[in-house]
Amino acid sequence: MKRAGLAATLALTPGEALAHGVVEGVGDIYAGLLHPLLVPGEALTLLALALLMGSSGLNAARFGIPALAAGLAVGLLAGAHVPSALATPPLLAVALVAAALVAAGARLAPVAVAVLAAAAGVAVGVDAHPESNALRPALVGGAATVLGGTALTLAIAALVLGRTALWQRVAVRVAGSWIVATAVLYLALTFGEAWSGPRSTLPSVAYGELHVDGWIVRCRRPMVAGEHAELSRVGELQGALT
Question: Which residue has the higher pLDDT, 102 or 137?
Answer without folding.
Answer: 102
